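task queued by scheduler; priority normal; single chain, no ligands, no partner chains; default sampling; output format set to structure tokens
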Amino acid sequence: AVLCLSDWHYGQVSNNIWNEYNTEICNIRVSKLFDKVSSALREHDVSTLHVALLGDFVNGAIHTGSRVAAEENTCEQLMHVSEILANFINALSVYVDNVNIYSTYGNHARTIQHKDDSIHSDNMERVIPWWLKQRLSGNNKINVVDCEFYEFIYFNVCGYNIVCTHG
């Protein structure tokens, strides 16, 4: 099975006619997602879960308005969302024999606001797979795969080549 996770924008605060979102709601949504994914893993007797982390897990600091309105600063966002992901993936590993984690990064954790002035790979979200590798090293079911193509993820599932990026 393949699970794609993207655009959590942890730290963002929104409350408008379309949506309400904050760190508490993010945690509630992750809990609901866990229930759905773990149920599907059991129902389909999945042996290997491929998790594609596609970026923008933090809201970051590249936009002044969102930085001012954020519940947490970017470092706190990165630390908290990395731990949420670690706990989420670790808990899912109970339902499968193997978990492979692939990771790329989005644009919200760039270190420079203007994309034309930034080095694309100078992105704080690159810390997430590093943290997951450290944090989950005691779980022999989990493999954090090093990305060899910068912002692109490549893997094979049941004979199908899959390429992912933040886009």
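post-processing summary
- Residues 23-43 form the longest helix (21 residues).
- The CA atoms of residues 40 and 86 lie 20 Å apart.
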